[in-house]
Amino acid sequence: TVKADIIQNNDIVQQLNACRVEMEVERDFIGSPPLKTVRFGGNVVDTLAKFKRGDTNDYELLKHQLSDPDIKDAQIINWLQEFRNCVTQLTKDHEQLVSVVLRLPWLGRSPAVVEEYLAFLSNLVSAQTVYLRSCLKMVVSHFTPGRIVIREGGVDISDSDDEDENLPRNFDLCHRALQVISRYVPSTTRFLMPILTDNFPFVQKSSRTLECYVHNLLRVTVYLPTLRRDILELVMGRMLKLDVSAPRSEIEEAEESPAQQARGREGPPEEGLFDMDEDDLARPSGEAGGAVMAHPVAERLDTLMDILLAYIKDVCFVSGSLHLTQTKELYRDLVGVFDKLVLPTHACCHVQFALFYLCSFRLGLAEAFLEHLWKTVQNPSHPPVLRQAAAAYVGSFLARANFLSITTVKACLDLLVPWLHRYIDSQDAGSRAFCDVSLHGPFYSACQAVFYTLIFRHQQILEGSLRQGMAYLQQMNLERIVMCQLNPLKVCLPAITNMFAAITRKYQLVFCYTIIERNNRLTLPAVRSGQGGESLPVNTNPLDSFFPFDPYLLKRSGKLIEPIYQVWEEPGDCEVDGQKKPVRQVSNGEEEDDFLQGETPHHDSLVGVTPGSYDSHLRSPSSVGSPPIAFLQRPF
């Protein structure tokens, strides 16, 4: 009996253990996600065959499984291997299926998935070139950070995912994919450029999104150099839109507002108190608030200018030495973009500094740029508005580029001044020898360029030998230019006219004040009605001129421009309008420029439109495996 009881108890224990095991297995099954190793339907070849016969059940099931957000690496590899084996059957009829395959999440996956996906891409574009555009669109879509949805106050806000640690690796893989595609399809460049243009983020997107996309665009030019001109044109064109959307006056006002608000919060301090706070306010903004622009559009532009200037430097310098061949090729591309986009854009403030920066690498580049501008100025076949803009670039470049030797400056003046005299000779005896901007716009712009250059460079001309310097200035015969019937002093900006008059009077070159006073009497303000009222303002800028290389306002990229830029230094011994101008004391953070401050009206800038153009309109590849340049290693 005892033995029977023991046997019975053992059976009960075993049954209880079995029940406990079954309960644990059931609990694990319920609490754990299903394994993704199960596949439904047949293989890809059989599924395509059934689809051809009209049976679409397995076909739809296949697309559903490929779209599973929880798909595993092993499954992706198995699917891609099957698709590679039947890639010749993936005709245009299977466009939806191929689209699902291309959307597989291959970035951020294991190296085995990446390699299998790239192999599939190479097989697909080789066997079915009809999918080339789809493959290129897929790759380019990953040039910006992925989008995430942030819920704030019950509202879903889409933003870029900047926290993705795999972002640099993902970008590397995208460029590797483009190189693989271009290796198998030589005509890739012809189809890629429109896709790059269409996928360019809207300029009001975040700085981070624009930064990533522009960086990747410029990186494409390293292994597809034939696209460089077009990509630079695309990038600089979008930057111009940002540039003209952030006028100089708005940027200056935005930068002044934080300091004014800080002073307002503190109130008027008592004398001798809060000296430390006052010193903090006078500290340069780069030390106090970082290098972030207060103006949101200027902040985006600053980010893109920083990338573009870094790209220019890394293309031109190899191991710290200037590579002349690469520099010349880049110069030609940038000048082509300059002629097409930058020169016809009135009142842009910063994008043109890309060429300014490039020209600082070698004097020969600066001289070539000046010669290029000069050809535009003197060529009568060019529209007058472009000739005027080119003259403004010549004068501003000669005045502001501190890397130019005085020999180069004098050589340019030796071209400009004789041309002015020849122009006067051709007009003095004619019926159009009177002041008219519409008739003589290029002449007046060239005069203003000469005056502006002499204001900035006269001291360097006179340094060393005062006698030789004076002889050089006297042989220009500036008096004939000033006193001719075309009357350039009436058209030039008043600030330039007054400063030029003060300098030429000091050195007894020309006495301009008689002409200035006569011009002032002839341009009295008009009154709206005979009973009085508001007077109509006098146009003080009939040329609608601007100076392209006026002070650079962007903070981060400005660090590269500052060492090569000539700031305005007030001549303390010159009297303007009969009174000696005091030298203004400025803090280290305040821009010591510019004697034109407030003189040039700020107009609404238009891309592709120059002043007066309202009635007329303008008419060796590197190997795929080449090592990346330093620009490509910039961290995200």
What is the makeup of the main sheet?
A: 2 strands, antiparallel
N→C terminal distance: 82 Å
Number of strands: 8
The 3D shape can be described as elongated
pLDDT < 50 runs, ≥5 residues: 23-38, 267-289, 526-532, 578-591, 601-629
Would you spell out the secondary-structure blueprint of this structure?
Blueprint: H1 2-31, H2 44-53, H3 57-66, H4 73-85, H5 95-102, H6 111-127, H7 132-140, E1 147-152, E2 155-160, H8 167-184, H9 188-198, H10 207-223, H11 228-245, H12 248-266, H13 275-282, H14 285-288, H15 296-316, E3 317-318, E4 321-322, H16 324-342, H17 353-359, H18 363-378, H19 384-400, H20 406-428, H21 437-462, H22 466-475, H23 478-483, H24 494-506, H25 513-522, E5 526-527, E6 535-536, H26 558-561, E7 575-576, E8 579-580
Antiparallel strand pairs: 1-2, 3-4, 5-6, 7-8
Helix pairs in contact: 2-3, 4-6, 6-8, 7-8, 7-9, 10-11, 10-15, 11-15, 11-16, 16-17, 18-19, 18-20, 19-21, 20-21, 21-24
Summarize, please.
The chain is built from 26 helices and eight strands.
Describe the protein's architecture and organization.
GO terms for molecular function: RNA polymerase I core binding; RNA polymerase I general transcription initiation factor activity. It comes from Lepisosteus oculatus. InterPro entries: RNA_pol_I_trans_ini_fac_RRN3 (IPR007991). This is RRN3 homolog, RNA polymerase I transcription factor. By secondary structure, the chain is mostly helical. Among the domains are: 128 residues; 125 residues, no CATH class; 168 residues, no CATH class. 57% of the residues lie in helices and 4% in strands. The chain contains 26 helices and eight strands. The strands form four sheets. Strands 1-2 form a two-stranded antiparallel ribbon. Strand 5 and strand 6 form a beta hairpin. Helix 18 runs antiparallel to helix 19. About 14% of the residues have low confidence.
